[in-house]
């Protein structure tokens, strides 16, 4: 951007929901950026979010088109419901803005292809909020892999276990098949991305999937009651989950690693995100390590670090993600977690849906048509 080295890059946060609080906070703390505008479907929502963050004299909008024309906008955060991520991203790209895209990035392969085309044409930078890549445990495990502490990785596992329900303000959109699509897409994509991330042998590399086989099930689909783990009680649901709440998939990667991943919206328990990485010379189970690097090891070595053990957005490392993205823009390089890379994660979720229909293993890449 012209004059980028003389001034802070301006950020427009589009969407004023739960996650937008952390986008705003992270860009407020980065020395190279400032939030210059907030937009939402409702103007009062944008104003409330700005007031909460102590933002004064910024642009407030209830229309993305007008917000994109706000003076000084260089970066757009797409924090809206998932079924409008594609159109929001395309609009931001066509306006020449760099883009932070919340997950899931889109609800179909066609939408993803349209997004990729728009971003490529505009030559703007993107980062997708698979924010756990910046979690301290994730960073430590990737460093162990790079240091050969585990040897040759041959299998990875991750599970997204979260009693998604009406306690969450975004549940009304995501519970519907038309706007949420599937449990893997809504939340389980975090676990899919983790399996890809740990299967990648390079420090900033995620593995590329080549085949998927999956099953879905659970008990909750269509029920008019739900368990609220925040209150530890059953209650009447505001609306039923319209797709299976439990999905499990096996993923074959082009580098030979096998991944096992699941999502469980039906679990009666607090949020958990267990991970396992198996190598020829070591193993990781959450923050416990067994490695040939520790001669004479007789018990697990426990890493005293931050685990991905909370659903609270305040617990997630958005600061690391946004600082990384700003560095990418300033250095004119692509993020390891850009739109092109994230498409591989989402493709696994769509392949699982195809597998439920065909009852056969699904080869990747998929045809967007």
Describe this structure in words.
- The protein has 2 domains: 9-131 and 319-338, NAD(P)-binding Rossmann-like Domain (Rossmann fold, 3-Layer(aba) Sandwich), CATH 3.40.50.720; 132-313 and 346-363, Dihydrodipicolinate Reductase, domain 2, CATH 3.30.360.
- The protein contains 11 helices and 17 strands.
- It has helices at residues 20-29, 43-52, 64-68, 85-94, 109-122, 136-146, 171-174, 177-180, 183-199, 318-331, 339-358, and strands at 9-14, 33-39, 59-61, 73-78, 98-101, 126-128, 153-161, 209-217, 225-228, 233-236, 246-253, 258-264, 275-279, 282-285, 288-291, 301-302, 362-363.
- It has a 9-stranded mixed sheet, covered by helices on one side. Strands 3-2-1-4-5-6 form a 6-stranded parallel sheet. Strands 9-10 form a two-stranded antiparallel ribbon.
- Strand 13 (275-279) and strand 14 form a beta hairpin.
- The protein is globular and about 60 Å long.
List keywords for this structure.
369 residues; Rossmann fold; Dihydrodipicolinate Reductase, domain 2; 2 domains; nine-stranded mixed β-sheet; 17 strands
Give the strand content. Answer: 15-25%
Structurally, the number of domains stands at 2
Q: What does the radius of gyration come to?
A: 20 Å
Number of strands: 17
Number of helices: 11
Q: Which helices and strands occur, and which strands form pairs?
A:
Blueprint: E1 9-14, H1 20-29, E2 33-39, H2 43-52, E3 59-61, H3 64-68, E4 73-78, H4 85-94, E5 98-101, H5 109-122, E6 126-128, H6 136-146, E7 153-161, H7 171-174, H8 177-180, H9 183-199, E8 209-217, E9 225-228, E10 233-236, E11 246-253, E12 258-264, E13 275-279, E14 282-285, E15 288-291, E16 301-302, H10 318-331, H11 339-358, E17 362-363
Parallel strand pairs: 1-2, 1-4, 2-3, 4-5, 5-6, 7-12
Antiparallel strand pairs: 7-13, 8-11, 8-17, 9-10, 11-12, 13-14, 14-15, 15-16
Helix pairs in contact: 1-10, 4-5, 5-11, 9-11
């Amino acid at each position: 951007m012209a004059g980028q080295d003389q001034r802070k890059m301006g950020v427009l946060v589009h969407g004023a929901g739960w996650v937008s609080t952390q986008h705003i906070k992270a860009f407020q703390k980065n020395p190279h950026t400032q939030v210059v505008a907030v937009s939402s479907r409702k103007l009062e929502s944008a104003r409330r979010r700005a007031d909460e963050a102590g933002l004064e004299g910024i642009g407030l909008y209830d229309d993305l088109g007008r917000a994109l024309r706000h003076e000084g906008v260089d970066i757009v955060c797409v924090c809206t419901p998932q079924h409008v991520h594609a159109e929001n991203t395309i609009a931001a790209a066509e306006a020449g803005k760099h883009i932070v895209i919340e997950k899931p990035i889109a609800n179909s392969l066609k939408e993803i292809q349209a997004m990729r085309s728009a971003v490529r044409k505009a030559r703007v930078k993107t980062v997708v909020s698979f924010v756990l890549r910046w979690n301290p445990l994730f960073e430590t495990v990737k460093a162990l892999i790079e240091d050969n502490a585990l040897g040759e990785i041959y299998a990875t596992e991750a599970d997204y276990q979260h009693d998604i329900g009406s306690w969450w303000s975004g549940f009304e959109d995501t519970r519907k098949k038309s706007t949420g699509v599937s449990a893997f897409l809504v939340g389980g994509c975090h676990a899919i991305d983790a399996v890809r991330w740990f299967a990648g042998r390079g420090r900033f590399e995620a593995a590329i999937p080549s085949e998927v086989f999956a099953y879905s099930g659970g008990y909750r689909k269509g029920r008019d009651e739900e368990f609220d783990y925040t209150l530890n009680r059953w209650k009447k649901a505001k609306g039923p989950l319209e797709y299976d709440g439990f999905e499990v998939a096996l993923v074959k990667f082009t580098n030979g690693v096998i991944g096992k991943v699941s999502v469980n919206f039906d679990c009666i328990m607090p949020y958990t995100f267990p991970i396992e990485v198996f190598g020829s010379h070591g193993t990781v189970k959450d923050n416990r390590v067994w490695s040939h690097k520790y001669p004479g090891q007789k018990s697990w070595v426990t890493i005293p670090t931050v685990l991905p053990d909370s659903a609270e957005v305040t617990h997630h490392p958005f600061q690391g993600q946004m600082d990384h993205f700003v560095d990418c823009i300033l250095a004119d390089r692509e993020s390891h977690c850009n739109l092109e890379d994230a498409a591989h994660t989402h493709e696994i979720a769509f392949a699982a849906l195809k597998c439920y229909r065909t009852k056969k293993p699904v080869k990747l890449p998929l045809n967007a048509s």
